[in-house]
Each structure stands twice: as structure tokens, then as C-alpha cells.
Amino acid sequence: MNVLEEAASLINGQRSKDYGHPRDNFNNIASLWTAYLGYEIDPLDVGLMMVLLKVARLESGVYQRDSIVDIAGYAGTLERIFEEPVADLDVMPESRVWQSILEVPTDITVTDVDDCKWKFIGDHWHYDVDDYWERGADPIETHDQDCPPFTEVLETTA
Predict the structure, then answer these.
(1) pTM, two decimal places
(2) How far is CA 23 from CA 9, 77, 84, in A?
């Protein structure tokens, strides 16, 4: 398999399954880098900087095939981000699951074992009661022990 075929196989196969669509993954990376650096980074910047990272490794003078594959992969990933219509996405994300609500990132809405929705608002977990978010019990560990698993609620688009 040549470098381009290998890169295409990776970005359209296992990596897509592991990390989701590169549009979402690179947007997330861009947000994190923006917060860290204090200035705006976009998904194109992410792809280009990852290519430059691989170029820097190659400047050691030693041929490393995996770096060449990764450069081709980042180019293909940028193509997917900017040229692949959103409606044509073939990889559907799977909900993540946590055994403790304390492990759930605070920007994620989850359901518990009783299918009750939970969301972090302000400085505390709240649960959904007829479309009204009620503050959860103190300490939250009480609920945490009785109601795992906590499953991510994925937003769907119509």
C-alpha cells in the first residue's frame, strides 16, 4: 500500500471511528488551542500546524515513513473538513458512558439508569423535571452511587 492509500485508510477508517468526524475533532482542538494561546485558532490552522509538526520531525534528516503518511493524512483530513458535506457524514458518534457523574465533563448532558437527564448548571448538577432543571441532591455522591451508568445525550440534527 502506498503512502496516500495508507493515509486514506487511516483517516476514513479507525481514526474516524476513534475520534469522530475530523470537523468536530479539529474544531475541538482549535477551541482548546485558542483558550491556551489567547488568540483565535481555526480548524485549518490545526491541520497546517500538525503538518508542520511532522515536517519538523523529518528535518532530522532521517526518513520516517509514518511522518509522511501523517502529512498525507492531515491533508486528507482538511479535505474532509472543508469539502465533505455535513449531511454525508458516514460515522455516527456513539454516546460516552461514565460510572460516576463526577467523571462527566461539565459541558455534557447525560441520562442516568432511570433515564433522567442531568446537566451541569452554574456550580452544580441539575436534573430535568418536565423541561425544568431542578438542582440535584447534596451531596451529589448520594445519587452518584445509586444511578450509574451516566450516558451522554447526543444532540441530533433534523
Answers:
(1) 0.52
(2) 17, 8, 9
